[in-house]
Amino acid sequence: MERGNIEFEYSESEIKQLIKVVGVGGGGGNAVTKMFTSGSVPGVSFLLCNTDKQALDHSPVEDKIIIGPTVTKGLGAGAKPERAKDAAEESKDQIRVALTEGETRMVFITAGMGGGTGTGAAPVIGKIAMEAGLLTIGIVTIPFLFEGTAKILQALEGVKQMRESVDALLVINNQRLIEVYKNFTVSEAFAKADDTLSNAARGISELVNIAGEVNLDFADVDTVLRGGGVAVINTGYAEGEDRMTLAIQEALNSPLLNNNNISKARQLLINVYYDDKAPLTVDEFSQIHEFTSEFSDEVNTIHGISRKEGLGTKLGVTILASGFGFDEDIFIPKTVKKRDPLTKINEDKERDEQHRLIERIYGEHATKRTKAEPVALSINELDDEELIIILEETPSFRRDHRIFESKRVDKSSNRAIRINNYGTASQSARERSTLSAFDLHTPRPEPSQYTTSSTTFTTSTPSRPEPVEEATQPEEEKTEETPENVIRFSGF
Fold first, then answer.
1. Tell me, what's the pLDDT at 211?
2. For the chain, which residues make up each domain, given as ranges?
3. 447: buried, middle or exposed (CB in 10 Å: 19+, 13-18, 0-12)?
4. 16-209, superfamily in CATH?
């Protein structure tokens, strides 16, 4: 392939717009709009694609496409990826024209995964760009842990489809924003996520438009990213002693990296920027070797050095890494399958696989949940001030089942009596105890039902407690009857 070069004698107004940044859906549109209004990235054009006409009308970005006017009528996808996919398919000719106009050779497609339009339409737009021969990079976000398992799994399915539809994929885990920027305000943290897009586009624009002593061009970028799979693109800046090492560390301190081990990359590009006020020294440049020594001998590494005015005493390092192996790519749901309603065994297996997947991305405690489980108290326990204080003065989500159980009187007449799912108990059990229910949060897979009255409380526990003992029933009294004045209360 003939190696391409960019003419560097252009003024800023004459820089070719080789890069097009496309925002898909609400999240992607917000990120692109912020980048557009900042006006700080030369050589970049912008496009918004959304099923929501109102959202497009509120953005100052000029080039916009209401995708799927027949499918969605401009009212959005309703959090349904399939509807958004159909909308993008309806507008694919219009999208293709918008992507290929002008001098565009590279496309960034950014979207939030887990909703409707971004999850469903972004992969379709990625395929259109690749079919047109454009170098196609996806930048997507996955939800915070508190947004729930259903949304996370829908997002990961979108990530899988996105990976199959672009050359290289950058994944921003919103949960990691909490770890990296935990002292920031919410607005500042989200701004950092949005900056990831502009930093990536700016980094590549500068690579191909700033002349270097060791020069890099678009062909080098293409080599590293085309067909690269999961990728990392970021720039770090530092000054003072050890500024090279610190700049590399800042570039790696990115929500893009998540748990990826960058040393597993198969393609690596590093470009160093300096100002004549503080020239790059040989010793500093040699520190790059210390960084790359952790990589395999088979990794394809490309280096560049460029002068950049305005840095002062700072040093800048742009890192492009791609080709993370399948084992290192924890974002792709290898085992998530469509729900099989035929047997509970398959459902439980699927749920376990989904939980393992989420734990690989969000941490081993991500899927631990407490469940509200009713427990019956005897009249004696209702008069126990210590137990009542535990239940009344502690918020339900913070109540610990183990503490509560340790305070209970260990007498058979005071133990909770378990009843079946039909709200019934044996006659002898009812005769032995009059009961009132308090909800206890426990991690049992299927909450059991207990006799109840109108007063309810909850407690929680981070680990599996000892099971509540069942009252012993005489053999001759196994016939179950519906007790009088008993209300059945389900755990939540």
1. 83
2. 16-209, 371-489
3. middle
4. Tubulin/FtsZ, GTPase domain (3.40.50.1440)
Per-residue pLDDT, 274: 96
Give me 72's structure tokens: 């969605």
Q: Which of 428, 414, 418, 413 is nearest to 475 (CA)?
A: 428
Q: Read off the tokens for 90.
A: 């309806």
- Structure tokens belonging to residue 206: 């500068």
* Residue stretches of the chain with pLDDT short of 70: 1-14, 40, 255-260, 325-348, 364-376, 396-404, 409-492
The single-letter DSSP state of residue 271 is: E
Cβ atoms of residues 332 and 156 within 8 Å: yes
Helix (H, G, I), strand (E, B) or coil at 463: coil
Q: Which two tokens stand for residue 236?
A: 């770090």
424-430, long-range: CB < 8 A, 24+ apart: 424/480, 424/481, 424/482, 424/483, 425/451, 425/480, 425/483, 426/473, 426/477, 426/478, 426/479, 426/480, 426/481, 427/477, 427/479, 427/481, 428/473, 428/474, 428/477, 429/471, 429/473, 430/483
What's the predicted TM-score (pTM) here? 0.68
Report the candidate in 367, 330, 351, 356 with the shortest Cα–Cα distance to residue 145.
367
Q: How far apart are CA 294 and CA 285, in angstroms?
A: 16
Calpha distance 72→406 (Å, rounded): 57
Q: What is the pLDDT of residue 2?
A: 37
- What crossing angle do the helices spanning 117-131 and 81-90 adopt, rounded to 10°? 40
